[in-house]
Write a structure and sequence with these properties.
The structure is a single chain. By secondary structure, the chain is an all-alpha fold. It has 2 domains: 70 residues, no CATH class; 56 residues, no CATH class. It has 7 helices and no strands. The chain is flat, with a radius of gyration of 15 Å. The two termini are 27 Å apart.
């Protein structure tokens, strides 16, 4: 696991919005490193919400993965909103990956629905997230 890094989400989203760089330039690869950023639970991740709808896939996927910290309930709600609206299988897989880490039983209906996807990777990632959520539920009950 990479070292713990605390990131100022507001500054990150401001940098992304004000730079009009192509994904081959330096900004997106730096944001791709943001997927390894972990936040303390008290950090407000809502500034990342605008980035999960960015047209650049590297920025979008990094923002989705960066939702694994901070306010987990808010992040989970945003991830479920993305799952309900996107048709991009890669966005769905990244949402599943993040829900695998922070998801609660509230995410199970959306994940179960994605188990019927024609895309194998979507099914596998949904199954892994369901198993992780159920395992966390069993641990908290014990």
């Amino acid at each position: 696991m990479s070292p713990l890094v605390v990131c100022d989400c507001r500054r990150l989203s401001t940098v992304v919005r004000h730079r009009r760089l192509d994904h081959r330039q330096s900004l997106s690869p730096r944001l791709a490193e943001g997927s390894a950023v972990y936040f303390f639970e008290s950090v407000d991740v809502s500034p990342l919400f605008a980035l999960v709808e960015d047209r650049r896939w590297l920025v979008r996927h990094s923002a989705i993965r960066s939702l694994n910290g901070g306010n987990r309930e808010e992040a989970e709600d945003k991830l479920l909103e993305i799952l309900a609206t996107t048709s991009d299988p890669n966005d769905i897989i990244y949402c599943h990956s993040t829900l695998n880490q922070i998801g609660t039983r509230k995410a199970l209906p959306a994940l179960t629905q994605n188990m019927r996807s024609r895309k194998r990777d979507v099914k596998i990632s949904a199954q892994a997230a369901i198993e992780a959520i159920e395992a966390r539920g069993r641990q908290s009950e014990a």
